[in-house]
């Protein structure tokens, strides 16, 4: 298998729709250590409905906060009354789910599903809602 083929099927880019890039960058920097160096000057969008694009990274993860022109363009999937309602969900590996969820709340987010054992010795997961209304997942072995 060629070197490039080994990476097929892996996440290569993550776009997070937001209404406030400053708030989102502060949240993800605090919770997951993401770096967003162009908070004040984003890139022009290539698609209608997006005001600006602001790149972020953390290790091999690269992506962008998409500042949407309309708040209604950000899908609000999270429903505290129906936690099993779930879109395609990026999940981030962390050392401690409990500590990370504390950081989520301190940074203005909400716990959607608390630390939950997966079973079969496969670790634990949790879900949170960021400051922009997006649902994200966490995973840790312990």
Topology overview:
Elements: H1 3-6, E1 14-18, H2 21-32, E2 50-58, E3 61-68, E4 91-93, H3 97-106, E5 110-117, E6 124-129, E7 135-140
Parallel strand pairs: 1-3, 4-7
Antiparallel strand pairs: 2-3, 5-6, 6-7
Describe this structure as you would to a colleague.
It comes from Phialemonium thermophilum. With about 140 residues, this protein is an alpha/beta fold. It folds into two domains: about 70 residues, 2,3-Dihydroxybiphenyl 1,2-Dioxygenase, domain 1; about 50 residues, Roll (2,3-Dihydroxybiphenyl 1,2-Dioxygenase, domain 1). It is built from three helices and seven strands, in the order αβαβββαβββ. A four-stranded mixed β-sheet has the order 4-7-6-5, covered by helices on one side. A three-stranded mixed β-sheet has the order 1-3-2, with helices on one face. α2 packs antiparallel against α3. It is globular and about 45 Å long. The N and C termini lie far apart (about 35 Å). The mean pLDDT is about 90.
């Amino acid at each position: 298998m060629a070197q490039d083929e080994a990476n097929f099927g892996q996440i290569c880019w993550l776009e997070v729709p937001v209404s406030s890039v400053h708030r989102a960058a502060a949240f993800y920097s605090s919770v997951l250590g993401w770096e967003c160096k162009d908070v004040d000057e984003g890139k022009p969008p290539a698609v209608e409905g997006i005001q600006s694009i602001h790149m972020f990274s953390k290790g091999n993860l690269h992506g962008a906060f998409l500042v949407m022109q309309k708040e209604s363009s950000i899908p609000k999937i999270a429903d505290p009354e129906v936690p099993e309602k779930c879109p395609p969900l990026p999940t981030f590996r962390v050392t401690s789910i409990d500590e990370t969820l504390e950081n989520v709340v301190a940074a203005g987010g909400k716990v959607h599903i608390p630390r939950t054992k997966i079973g079969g010795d496969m670790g634990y997961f949790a879900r949170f809602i960021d400051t922009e209304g997006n649902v994200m997942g966490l995973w840790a072995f312990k």
